[in-house]
Structures are given as C-alpha cells and as structure tokens.
Specification:
Helix content: 25-40%
Pfam families: IspD
Radius of gyration: 18 Å
CATH topology: Spore Coat Polysaccharide Biosynthesis Protein SpsA, Chain A
EC number: 2.7.7.60
Oligomer: single chain
Family: Belongs to the IspD/TarI cytidylyltransferase family. IspD subfamily.
Distance between the termini: 25 Å
Shape: globular
Site (Positions MEP for the nucleophilic attack): 169, 226
Organism: Hydrogenophaga borbori
CATH architecture: Alpha-Beta Complex
Order of helices and strands: EEEHEEHEHEEEEHHEH
Number of domains: 1
Low-confidence stretches: 1-8
CATH class: Alpha Beta
Strand order of the largest sheet: 5-4-1-6-10-7-11
Length: 244
C-alpha cells in the first residue's frame, strides 16, 4: 500500500513507475433498489454492501490505494476505513463522479501514466483474484481493458413488448467492472464527453471507445453482478455467506 498521507495533500507523493489506483464512484442514490438508504449502504451479510466491495479491493496487493468518491452531503460514510481515502466530490451522474475523482488524482500529482481501476461500489461480489487477473492482462496493454462476460443467453430485440428479432450472441459481451485505463487518457476522454453532458457514456470503456481506441476484454465471472434491484440483495447475501 501507499505510504502515509501528508498533511498537505490527500495523496502520497507519486512514484516514478506506473502504479494502480482503485476508484469507486459512490455518490448514487440507488433509487432502483427500492430501499430507504442508498444501496451501497444497505446491509448485506451483516455489513454495508460497499464494505464488502472494499474488502475485496483491499485484498489486491497490486493496488497502491483505494479512493472512494462520495456525494458532498453523504451522511452514511463512516468516519474512517483503514486503507481507503474518501473524497466528497461526487457529481450528478456516475460519469461526472468518476471525472471529478480522476481530476482530484491529477491535481494531487498522480502521474497521467498511472493506471486507474474504476469499480462499481455495488459490485460487492468481485474477488481479489478477478481484479488481479485484470491488472495482469492489461498492465502491458497500450489501451487498457475491462472485466467482461461472454453473453451466455439468447438475446432478443424488442418492439412494443414483443420480440422483434433474435440477435446473434457470438462476439457479444456483458461489460463489468473494474475497468482499467491510464489516468490521463481516461480523464481526457471523459473531458471530451463532458462537453455533451456525458451523453452515451455508460461506462469508462465507452468513453475510451469514443476516442477510437479498443479496450481489451478480460473474461470475468458471472458472480460479479451489480446489485441493482431488490432481489439482487438476496442473491448477493447468499453468495457472500457461501464464501465464509
């Protein structure tokens, strides 16, 4: 992990060689989860959901630091979590929150050539092994990449609630996180997209794709779901309890 933070900056002095930083956008309200708390703070297997996510990331030796970007008025984040740096710079959208977090890293002196792994706070079932596999696959890549899953099911196109056609599923992947790109390239890509209100930017890879580059797909696991709907919590709890 990184050395202790100085009083002058929330981030340690940058090293000369590229390192890996995890960035979690954690400013959403989780309205689709249908719960009174933002979904990242809903209890799952005895702990807030986001703490399971952070525990997995803290188990990755190649991550230099973990940064969580919160809403400015977040009242649920605990005062301190060992090994995690919190920034209250969340935006109105996920893309804006990631952009603000990346800009904070650059302003603090983190080199543009360092890698940033952006991970959904609600993907609490990711494992250290999956994250390590992504790092190993992308560390020497000229673009970077993301965890993803080859589409296992038949895919249908819909019109007015009825099947319009069956879509060929070969070469179709379900994007997951983390998504790993160099700080400078991802920040610049999001800065370009910001001019149009981040229209069409659904993840970090889509921002990189708009610049003409092709991110690497690294096969992940089906268990790395994004907890979104009420029934997802029961599934996540069952998987977490089975692991312990």
């Amino acid at each position: 992990m990184a050395p202790p933070m100085s009083a002058a900056s929330p981030f340690p002095a940058p090293p000369s060689l590229p390192r890996c930083h995890a960035l979690l956008p954690c400013a959403g309200t989780g309205s689709r989860a249908g719960a009174p708390l933002p979904k990242q703070y809903q209890p799952v297997a005895g702990r807030p959901l986001v703490q399971h996510t952070l525990a997995a990331l803290r188990g990755v030796p190649r991550l230099d630091r973990i940064v969580v970007v919160l809403a400015p008025d977040d009242a649920h984040w605990p005062a301190d979590i060992d090994g995690v740096q919190a920034l209250r710079r969340g935006g109105a959208t996920r893309a804006e929150t990631v952009f603000n977090g990346l800009r904070a890293l650059r302003e603090a002196g983190v080199p543009d050539t360092d890698w940033v792994l952006v991970h959904d706070a609600a993907r609490c079932l990711v494992t250290p092994e999956e994250v390590t596999a992504l790092i190993e696959a992308c560390a020497g890549d000229p673009v970077g990449g993301l965890l993803a899953l080859p589409l296992p099911d038949t895919l249908k196109d819909e019109v007015d609630g009825r099947v319009a056609r069956t879509i060929e599923r070969r070469h179709k992947w379900l994007a997951q996180t983390p998504q790993m790109f160099r700080l400078g390239e991802l920040l610049d890509a999001l800065s370009e997209a910001r001019a149009t209100g981040f229209e069409g930017i659904t993840d970090e890879a889509s921002a990189i794709e708009r610049t003409g580059r092709r991110p690497r797909l690294v096969e992940g696991r089906a268990s790395n779901i994004k907890v979104t709907y009420p029934h997802d919590f029961a599934l996540a709890e069952a998987i977490l309890r089975s692991r312990t």
